[in-house]
Write a structure and sequence with these properties.
The chain is α/β, with parallel strands linked by helices and 459 residues long. 43% of the residues lie in helices and 10% in strands.
Length: 459
């Protein structure tokens, strides 16, 4: 077995202790690839030096790197900044404060006011779920398809029973002063569709307590709420791209999704949040200087003066805009009242609120737009090269025969761009937890059997 370079040999094994765990359910998560990523960064950047994690997403790469390097996490989405900062800079007494915060949320006035306003709707949902558990799923299907406070009046297909309860809830919310404003944003926007009504109320009550916290430590408790929401959400794959439909195109119930829906919607937000705070508080990080920045990648690279020893980048490679998959978390983080996009699909040309309750103002990444992706990668390579530091880039090869989403650029195109700006380039196919380096002249090797590759670029 070859001897590791000293720098790599000194790295502790991530599996030796609770270093990293999944945070949110994230598209393209690097959780299983953290060891190869850390070792590739170690090959180009001395430990204890500052490194940059671009497109930081769920924060798990930042957390893995934070065990040995000073990490700056960068992402255009605010929920990502919160996750990253909460993960790498937890407050000293995070575990105890998390439990106390949850107690205040459970006994606070907001939760009581919301439960009083939605009393009939809560009872209606419980009956629908009980009926579904006994095989009668029509009521639950109706609730998931049409039970949205925000979209009330936008769709006429709901049952008269559900219509009456939604109308009564809206009237009572107005009486309580909760029909507008940030206090009930999860309940009004996402209750019924993404979460049970009880879960939505619990999340709103938690957010009220969290957003009252002053200072940077708020990010940890808000990050725990985002993780909890990701665990509780009732969607396929636990992303937020589309609420579940319990009926197929012929109107028949999807029995396996009924079971998942009952399981998801009975998860206790309070219990999950307590466990999450305790779990996140015990993760391993160094006591270095870590920070998280909300910024466009190019603006950050051009304007931030921090001298990084290396940049790790994991930009998107397909047409999928991540903002569509995590807009619920972004709204929870900003705690605003976003304008919701409309659609005319299956509505006879009449505009309706998008079923996913998508924000109108959502980031559209140039890396996900065919006409803009080549230029975006060109600017990424060029701007990092101007800083005269190594770049480690993640990429997932495309297998058309496996039904993968097509990549907007091929490996050959990426390597061709890299050659224009860096002197030494290595292609590192990653197979599970192992990886092998290929010289640039071997770049046409078949890498389609690998779930991921790293492109290591040195000035």
């Amino acid at each position: 077995m070859p001897t590791l370079p000293k720098q790599l040999a000194l790295l502790p094994d991530l599996g030796a202790e609770r270093s990293v765990q999944r945070t949110i359910h994230y598209l393209g998560s690097k959780l299983r690839l953290l060891e190869p990523i850390r070792r590739e960064v170690a090959a180009v950047a001395p430990v204890d030096q500052p490194v940059c994690d671009l497109f930081a997403g769920s924060g798990i790469v930042s957390l893995a790197l934070a065990s040995e390097w000073d990490v700056t996490s960068v992402d255009i989405q605010e929920y990502s900044r919160v996750l990253c900062n909460g993960l790498v800079n937890p407050p000293a007494n995070a575990r105890d404060e998390g439990g106390e915060l949850c107690d205040r949320a459970n006994t606070g006035s907001l939760g009581s006011r919301l439960r009083e306003a939605l009393h009939g709707l809560l009872e209606h949902e419980r009956r629908c779920m009980a009926d579904a558990a006994n095989g009668a799923v029509d009521g639950l299907c109706d609730l998931l398809e049409h039970g949205s406070l925000l979209a009330f009046g936008d769709r006429d297909e709901m049952s008269s029973a559900l219509r009456g309860e939604v109308k009564a809830a809206l009237d009572k919310l107005n009486d309580h002063g909760l029909a507008t404003g940030p206090e009930a944003v999860v309940t009004r926007y996402f209750g019924g569709r993404y979460f049970s009504w009880e879960q939505a109320i619990e999340l709103d009550a938690l957010l009220a307590e969290i957003h009252s916290i002053e200072g940077a430590e708020r990010d940890f408790f808000l990050a725990a709420a985002l993780v909890t929401a990701s665990d509780a959400v009732n969607t396929v794959g636990k992303h937020f791209a589309q609420p579940i439909k319990l009926r197929d195109a012929q109107g028949h119930p999807k029995r396996h999704l009924v079971k998942q829906t009952l399981r998801d919607r009975t998860l206790s937000v309070s219990e999950s949040y307590r466990a999450c705070c305790e779990s996140l508080a015990t993760l391993r990080r160094s006591r270095g200087h870590h920070r998280a920045v909300r910024s466009d990648y190019l603006e950050f690279l051009e304007c931030d003066a921090t001298p990084f020893a290396a940049v790790y980048a994991d930009p998107p490679y397909t047409r999928d805009h991540y903002s569509r998959y995590y807009h619920v978390l972004e709204t929870m983080t900003l705690r605003d009242e976003p304008e919701v996009a409309t659609t005319k699909i299956r509505s006879n040309g009449v505009p309706r609120l998008s079923r996913g309750i998508y924000r109108v103002e959502r980031h559209q990444s140039p890396f996900c737009i065919p006409t803009k992706a080549p230029g975006a990668f060109e600017r990424l390579f060029a701007t990092v090269a101007r800083r005269k530091v190594p770049l480690v880039l993640s990429y997932s090869p495309y297998q058309a025969t496996a039904g993968n989403r097509p990549r907007l650029l091929t490996i050959e195109q990426l390597l061709g761009i890299a050659e224009r700006y860096f002197n030494a380039i290595e292609l590192v196919p990653v197979d599970g937890m192992s990886h092998n380096k290929l010289n640039l002249t071997e770049r046409n090797v078949d890498v389609e059997g690998h779930a991921e590759v790293l492109i290591s670029c040195r000035p």
